[in-house]
Design brief:
By secondary structure, the protein is of the alpha+beta class. The chain contains 10 helices and 26 strands. Bound molecules: FE2/S2 (inorganic) cluster. FE2/S2 (inorganic) cluster (FES) binds next to loops.
Length: 507
């Protein structure tokens, strides 16, 4: 199934930025040209630093371009959850820091004249049945204690007949996230902000600080790894749960919901919004979330979202389908700051479903840290809490040492005549795991009938990979690496591709 997001389908095309072809010296190297990396780059350049930003794809195409485009001070797991876990003061500081991030986006849009549809509007939490009224009420109390402008209503300002209770928080925001990031890259790029696309990082050295890529390396003073989860092997990955969710978008005929962010909670949870461009309005529904490894994944994820949308709104054919990965910290707070055991490397991860706002906040905080300016929220999100509490030196197996270099790939056995005859009944667009000499091999037959076979264990830390039929990829449940059928890394912490197995057609 072809998948692409509404944001990728509607963002104005921008010129491709160059690929790094040579060795360079800069003050700060930033890995990842999404909202986190580019926000950090913008602020560092403003302060006089020379930076280089590297991305394996086009700026914003990885995580930012697959988000919801919603910006808010609340959090997806609920402010009441944060208050229960960390106390009132910490919950207020989360809201304060996230509000500051939304303010920075608004100021940046105005200062750089970015055409990304940024709008201030309300955020809603809607109970679709009586069973979820209590959760909405609990969140309303937490929002009020966080000093947000919150209101509890008995209906919803969008056509959802079943809505029984709605929390409204005023003055939140929405935009077209990919338009924002692509235009930001264009505006800040220059002599002191070198942005390289289609440049894959192969290894990162902390001291001295060097970022290696397939074509050249960057020598620098500091490194920011802004890749959603840091690439390579890092202790923080032992504290992250990986969640996948899905999105669809279809043209909306009438019965227009009021603009706003709507989180609808009933038997399932859905995030709903509209997006209007060139006189055409789209309905965006995101949901069907699950922890990696929890459930089989297939096209029914998209069908379920479409059924929910059609139950409530008159939509045309679904034109965009996409998915996104979230990394959720076990203590429900992101990790932002200098990495454990590192002198020069900074990371930002664990944003859960709140990545556009937390990503911007991370860019602000990491720039402040590198500039030695300090930040009022440093202790709240510090990475060093990994080694400060009861997790002290209880490093799970495999995390004994941080490593930002690729693992040595194991040999992948070739498929001989026996295996090829066993696979003769594998239909096009289907996959199968087989074993050769005790080693797992992952096989996929493309639409053209050709087989592609790769190592059946993840190149990050060796977990088994599983087929993802919704997105035609091999996924690893352990830390979220995803691979194309030919073994290329699509996302996640893996640095090396899955090694291809030879097909011994002449055997
Ligand atoms: Fe870590 Fe696969 S992502 S082992």
């Amino acid at each position: 199934m072809d998948t692409t997001s509404l944001w990728k389908g509607t963002a104005a095309k921008t010129a491709c930025l160059p690929t790094l072809q040579t060795d360079l010296n800069v003050d700060v190297a930033i890995v990842g040209a999404g909202i986190t990396g580019l926000t950090a780059a913008m602020l560092l350049v403003q302060a006089g630093k020379r930076v280089a930003v590297l991305d394996a794809y086009k700026a914003g195409d990885a995580s930012t371009g697959n988000s919801t485009g919603n910006l808010y001070a609340t959090v997806d797991l609920g402010l009441h959850t944060l208050e229960e876990l960390h106390g009132l003061e910490a919950m207020r500081r989360v809201v304060e820091s996230r509000s500051a991030a939304v303010d920075l986006i608004e100021a940046t849009v105005a200062r750089l004249n970015l055409e990304c549809g940024f709008q201030r509007l309300p955020w809603h939490l809607v109970a679709l049945d009586a069973a979820h009224v209590g959760e909405v009420e609990k969140e309303a109390l937490a929002a009020m204690r966080a000093r947000l402008h919150a209101d509890l209503r008995d209906d919803a300002p969008l056509p959802l007949d079943a809505a029984v209770k709605t929390l409204v928080v005023e003055d939140q925001a929405q935009f077209q996230p990919l338009a924002y990031v692509r235009q930001l890259a264009q505006r800040i790029g220059g002599e002191n902000c070198l942005i390289f696309e289609n440049t894959r990082v192969t290894a990162i050295d902390d001291a001295p600080a060097v970022v290696h890529t397939t074509h050249g390396k960057l020598q620098c003073q500091q490194i920011v790894i802004a890749t959603h989860t840091p690439i390579g092997i890092h202790l923080v990955q032992s504290q992250l749960e990986v969640v996948r969710e899905y999105g669809i978008s279809a043209p909306l005929h009438d019965s227009m919901p009021d603009p706003g962010v709507y989180w609808c909670i009933g038997q399932e949870r859905h995030s709903v919004r509209t997006y209007t461009e060139h006189g055409r309005t789209w309905l965006v529904v995101v949901g069907s979330a699950h922890s990696l490894g929890e459930k089989e994944v297939g096209p029914e994820r998209f069908r379920n979202l479409e059924a929910f949308a059609r139950d409530h709104w008159p939509i045309g054919p679904v034109e965009y389908r996409w998915s996104a990965q979230r990394y959720r910290a076990k203590d429900k707070l992101p990790y932002i700051g200098r990495n454990v055991d590192a002198q020069n490397t900074y990371i930002a991860t664990g944003f859960s479903g709140d990545g556009l706002t937390y990503g911007t906040l991370a860019g602000m905080m990491l720039a402040d840290e590198i500039l030695g300016r300090g930040t009022p929220w440093r202790d709240l999100y510090a990475v060093e809490r990994l080694t400060r509490d009861d997790r002290q030196d209880k490093r799970p197996q495999g995390f004994e040492q941080e490593s930002s270099g690729p693992a040595k790939p194991a040999d992948t056995p070739a498929l001989g005549a026996d295996q090829l005859s066993q696979l003769a009944d594998l239909p096009p667009c289907q996959s199968r795991k087989i074993e050769i000499d005790g080693k797992p091999v992952a096989v996929y037959r493309g639409q053209d009938g050709q087989l592609q076979a790769v190592a059946g264990k993840c190149s990050h830390m060796g977990c088994e990979i599983k087929w993802n039929g919704a997105e035609t990829s091999w996924d690893c449940d352990c830390h979220g690496s995803r691979f194309a059928p030919d073994g290329r890394v699509l996302e996640g912490p893996a640095l090396a591709p899955l090694q291809a197995a030879k097909l011994d057609q002449g055997a």
